[in-house]
Design goal:
The protein has 9 helices and 9 strands. By secondary structure, it is α+β, with helices and mostly antiparallel strands.
Length: 259
Amino acid sequence: MTGINIKEKIATNVKQAIKEFETREDIVTRFGEPIITYIDAKDQLFDLLFDKELTEHPKNIYRPGNTVITYFIPYAEEITESNKGGKQVSDQWRRASIESAWLAMKINRIIRQTLNIIGRLSSILNTQLDWDEEKHQASWSHKLSAYVAGIAELGPAGSIHTKAGFGGCCGSVITDGKFTESSEPRSQEQLETIYQNILTDCCYEGAQGVSCSEEMIAACPGKAISENGIDRAKCQNHCKTIDEYIPSPDVCGKCFFFR
């Protein structure tokens, strides 16, 4: 089918899907304007992240893939603010974490259906159910995909910080359609610098230049943060008391305010 601007169509359908989702009687979370972007599945940063075992490679997930469609849908501002301070996760933040996973499944389905209109194939990527407790991460990181796409910078515990904030729903779909230009090559030195910056920005224990403030240390209910950074095992153990199946730092989010 010709004459369709597929990016505009996806944006329109995603916005409509969010509105429909919010009208459900069992949904209390409210969301903001979605950020959607497209990145070359062969970008060197995906090679770097795969080589450093930070995430799976798009081509390993979906071999025909040429483009990673990544989106971030922010929570309403009051939801993020409700989780600021204290040791307990706010009811609004906890509920948003659950409902955003449901929304991601709906959004991915909508994107795939829209791609079908022009005969494009796509992967099935929904929620981060493939949590690896030994590596303290999901096999495929939607957040790192957002970082590669340039819509987010990284912060404490691997949080992502966009122009719309850090609280929100992040997801991605890999398609065989080519909807972006090939990425510019980077030198090995540039790639190594990017990797070290990722570790530092995430405040991981042992990373170069990491120094966590007393306020950030005190804010962690799991006692996973010291001056030298975030102990990912301790962080995961605490987050597991909040969500047994996906013990991601996102279910807590207390340190995200200290970027």
